[in-house]
Amino acid sequence: MSKNKNTEQKIFEAATELFIEKGVDRTSVRDIATKAGINLALMNYYFRSKENLFDAIFANLVKKNTKDLIKIMDSDLELNDKISQYVSTYIDILIENPLLVSFFMAILHRSREKITEMDVIHNLYGREKFTQQILDEGKKGTIKKTDPSHFYVDMISMITFPFAIKPLIMDKNELNEADFMEFIAYRKIHITQMLKDSIKPCP
Amino acid sequence: MSKNKNTEQKIFEAATELFIEKGVDRTSVRDIATKAGINLALMNYYFRSKENLFDAIFANLVKKNTKDLIKIMDSDLELNDKISQYVSTYIDILIENPLLVSFFMAILHRSREKITEMDVIHNLYGREKFTQQILDEGKKGTIKKTDPSHFYVDMISMITFPFAIKPLIMDKNELNEADFMEFIAYRKIHITQMLKDSIKPCP
DNA sequence: GTCTATACGGCGATAGAC
DNA sequence: GTCTATCGCCGTATAGAC
Question: For labelling alongside A162, which of A96, A115, B5, B111 has CA 20 to 30 A away?
Answer without folding.
Answer: A115
